[in-house]
Amino acid sequence: MTLPLALTLGEPAGIGPDITLAAWQRRSELGLPPFYLLADPVFVAERARALGLTVPLRVTETKDAAGIFPSRKKTASGI
Question: Considering the domain boundaries, does residue 75 fall inside one?
Fold first, then answer.
């Protein structure tokens, strides 16, 4: 299983939240590994709404975050 990446929000007034939300929307298309965001869920929801994005948010403890993602079977190449 590929463990998810933990991202931080960065400067809330900067472009980090917008990039993160856009990346989440296009994660399959871009072949991004699973990731989660360490941030205030209210802020993230408000920013997504302001950008016109629908992003499912799930609040969890950091220690439990990796378990939220489905297991990914390894391919013949080991990835």
Answer: no
